[in-house]
Design goal:
Blueprint (H helix, E strand, L loop, with lengths): L3 E5 L11 H15 L3 E7 L11 E12 L2 E10 L5 E6 L1 H4 L6 E2 L3 E2 L3 H18 L6 E5 L5 H8 L3 H5 L5 H11 L3 E5 L7 E3 L19 E2 L2 E3 H8 L2 E4 L2 H6 L10 H6 L4 E3 L27 H13 L10 E5 L8 H12 L4 E5 L4 H13 L4 E4 L4 H10 L2 E4 L9 H7 L3 E5 L2 H6 L12 E3 L4 H15 L2 H13 L4 H20 L1
Parallel strand pairs: 1-2, 1-8, 2-5, 8-9, 9-13, 13-14, 15-16, 15-18, 16-17, 18-19, 19-20
Antiparallel strand pairs: 3-4, 4-5, 6-7, 10-12, 11-12
Helix pairs in contact: 1-18, 3-4, 4-7, 10-13, 11-12, 11-16
Length: 501
């Protein structure tokens, strides 16, 4: 048997999801198992999971964890879902809520520190109780950031010896205390910060509330805790791993990340090609492949009709599927729209987000009827249609840890125009004469730079042979999860090797 991996996350498709982490937490464990690992996934048991069609069974284990001066019980369940074992940590006082992390009206839940502290500690206890004997813990984002510090603080040999338990149980605790951890940062902007007065609820040694530990600008920082105490830190692209060590992208943790740069690695996320692939996509009007592209024209026709564009089939159509937010570049898009329209394109935008940008984009759509169509919604079918039916996909992010839509676009032969940042830089080969390019990239975060690259793309679109060659190269790119899984296994080996020295 290969490595035994405990994969810990706060969400996973299809049980609970708010964003890309949910996709990764499903796809990566599947890919790791395909590479020979034995993976056990741990998630909180959010109450709404009980209403899903997935069968949930008790695992026969209840564990107790300290939160401040009291003790909290966690009952462990198992989800009957294909692939890796999926365990659910049920603590009703923390996870019997309408949302995962907070409500749209009030923001994050007031007790998020307690919620995910209890979850992280309960995972360790459940791993011992279930006798899973892991080789590595793989933790994700701030919600699991306390697990590495708990292993190194609450499960020291001295702490274990002081417990009034059997020698057999002490042996199990000693074994789990020696397990290394890998911590993945999916988006550094979300750090899980809380007031210092709450530190006592964590039941950690006081010397950890320091600049070298979990303190950051006078607050508890759960993401920093994961980074400070994990053996290996990863983020979701090589360029982003370098960017977050700079003041511009470091969100006040750049100095700390530079300090740990020898342990910081970038691994690009994979794409689920069983879902995002025009050869098998059941959500698009007509399937197509590099050998037969006729279906793409049918998809373009359907896209034009669905979004109410009044353009010819020969007109290049630019698509966007995105959260309407400054991070995704909508400030420069809104500023550049009039010039984009002068390029003679049709344009469709699909997504939800900030009211400011929704109103801006809807006002521009009213100004350019039949040329620009904005659909403010999250609709998976339409997302697939935009990917398949567009000629060009625009992704001008201010920062982008990895990004998936540019990877999907490549597979659909929809040429990406992206800003050269994070995962966009790593996955798109920018256009230049004589280069085997797969898209267009601009560096300066400015409307003018965006328009220049879009103009280049439109010009190449009119050169049918060159455009067809770029589409063929784009569709041949491989960002399957197996590549990412192999890299993670290499890093697991590094972490394990360091502990055995």
């Amino acid at each position: 048997m290969g490595m035994r991996v405990i994969y810990v996350a706060s969400e996973m498709k299809p049980l609970a999801q708010t964003g890309g982490l949910g996709d990764v937490a499903r796809a990566l464990p599947l890919a790791l198992e395909a590479e020979g690992c034995k993976v056990s996934v741990f998630l909180p048991f959010y109450s709404f999971i009980e209403t899903s069609d997935i069968e949930i069974k008790a695992a026969g284990v209840t564990v107790k964890v300290p939160i401040g001066a009291r003790e909290v019980s966690a009952v462990i369940y198992k989800a009957d879902i294909a692939g890796p074992d999926v365990y659910l940590v049920k603590i009703d006082e923390y996870f019997d809520r309408s949302h995962l992390y907070g409500t749209p009206e009030l923001g994050g839940y007031f007790d998020n520190l307690e919620r995910y502290a209890a979850f992280s500690r309960a995972v360790i206890e459940a791993v011992v109780a279930l006798d899973l004997k892991p080789d590595i813990f793989h933790c994700n984002d701030w919600q699991t950031g306390l697990l590495p510090i708990y292993l190194k603080d609450s499960y020291t040999l001295e702490a274990i010896e002081a417990l009034d338990i059997t020698e057999k149980k002490k042996k199990k605790y000693r074994e789990v205390s020696a397990v290394p951890t890998l911590f993945t940062i999916h988006n550094l902007a979300y750090q899980g910060t809380f007031e210092d007065r709450l530190f006592e609820t964590l039941n950690l040694s006081g010397h950890h509330f320091t600049h070298e530990g979990i303190e950051c600008y006078g607050q508890i920082n759960m993401l920093k805790a994961g980074g400070a105490f994990a053996d290996i830190i990863t983020t979701v692209s090589e360029t982003y791993s370098r960017e977050i060590q700079t003041p511009e992208y470091g969100h006040r943790l750049d100095g700390f990340l530079r300090f740990r740069r020898a342990d910081l690695f970038g691994v690009v996320n994979g794409a689920d090609y069983t879902d995002w692939n025009p050869e098998v996509d059941e959500l698009i009007p007509s399937k197509y492949s590099p050998q037969d592209m006729s279906g793409k024209l049918q998809c373009k026709k359907a896209l034009i009709e669905e979004f109410g564009l009044r353009v010819r089939l020969t007109t290049p159509v630019v698509g966007m599927v995105s959260r309407l937010a400054a991070q995704k570049g909508f400030d420069i898009v809104a500023e550049a729209i009039d010039k984009i329209m002068r390029l003679g394109v049709g344009m469709v935008v699909l997504g939800e987000g900030e009211t400011k940008f929704r109103r801006l984009m809807e006002a521009h759509a009213a100004k350019h009827p039949g040329r620009l169509s904005v659909n403010v919604s999250f609709d998976n079918r339409l997302a697939h249609l935009v990917e398949a039916g567009s000629d060009i996909f625009l992704m001008p992010s201010h920062y982008e840890p990895c990004g998936l839509n540019q990877i999907y676009s490549l597979k659909y032969g929809t040429i990406p125009v992206v800003r050269a940042t994070g995962g966009l830089e790593d996955t798109v080969k920018g256009y230049a004469p004589g280069v085997a390019s797969t898209g267009f990239k601009f560096k300066e975060y400015a409307p003018k730079a965006l328009v220049v690259k879009l103009r280049q793309a439109v010009a190449l679109y009119k050169q049918k042979e060159e455009w067809a060659a770029m589409v063929e190269r784009a569709m041949a790119e491989d960002f399957s999860w197996s590549r990412s899984a192999k890299k993670y296994i290499e890093l697991y080996s590094v972490a394990i090797g360091r502990r055995s020295i």
